[in-house]
Amino acid sequence: MSDAESTSKHDIRKYIVYETCLMELFEVCPVCKRVCTVKNKVLGTFISVKQLCEYCEYSRIWQRQPLLDSTPAGNLQLSAAVYISGASFFKLQRAMHLQIFLYDTFRRHARMFIEPAMVHKWNHSQNVMLQQLSEERKVILGGDMRADSPGHCAKFGSYTMMDLNTKTIVDLQLVQSNEVGGSSHMEKEGLKRSLALLDARGVTIDSIVTDRHPQIQKFLRDNNITKFYDVWHMEKELQSNYIKLAKPRTARK
Ligand SMILES: [Zn+2]
What we know:
The structure is a single chain. The chain is an alpha+beta fold. The chain has 2 domains: 3-118, no CATH class; 140-246, Nucleotidyltransferase, domain 5 (2-Layer Sandwich), CATH 3.30.420. Helix content is 42%, strand content 23%. It is built from 9 helices and 10 strands. The chain has a 5-stranded mixed β-sheet. It has a 3-stranded antiparallel β-sheet with strand order 1-2-3, with no helix packed on it. α3 (73-85) crosses α5. The chain is elongated. The relative contact order is 0.07. The structure holds zinc ion.
């Protein structure tokens, strides 16, 4: 498919049509006005209707949506919409008796089309961003890790690096705790990998804003990278210590 063709199909507006309303359109022969024989073929959200008039031999095949090779465009686009929005396939399926394809089909769409497309798009965008950053002199980054569960039992952590001048995510690193000897080491590893990538792409960092984790502080100090504290982390700490703060003690440095 050329870009122009797929874009135009993607941009066409779609409607939800109730089966009873749809089938009304095929009940009567448009030529002789007598009752027709009607047969349906359903594939997920796709339906085609074959209408045949046994009196005047009028016939037609009507399709509800365009096909991309043999895949109905609507099926693929619905999979993409569910996947990209983070919605639940099963909840959507149950919500309103929507005629939809099987979960296996959704996973196949994700595996074969959506995930490769997202990875391709991300790699391309990241290359462009890193190229631009490598030409800038005052690159200020913000970095932090998000873990799959709170506390010290997290299995995965994703480290996110943002360019604070443009407020754009420039890198993501996924770290698994057993790669680095425990979840408490994930944050430093994520930061380290991200900085190594930026360095390999020729990005010179002016400074980084991050949290006050001692390992992180030490790592940045050892690597001579100017650091600033993320106020959000301090605010969070203040909130959790609110009661203690009512009885002031020596402020932490
Ligand atoms: Zn007819």
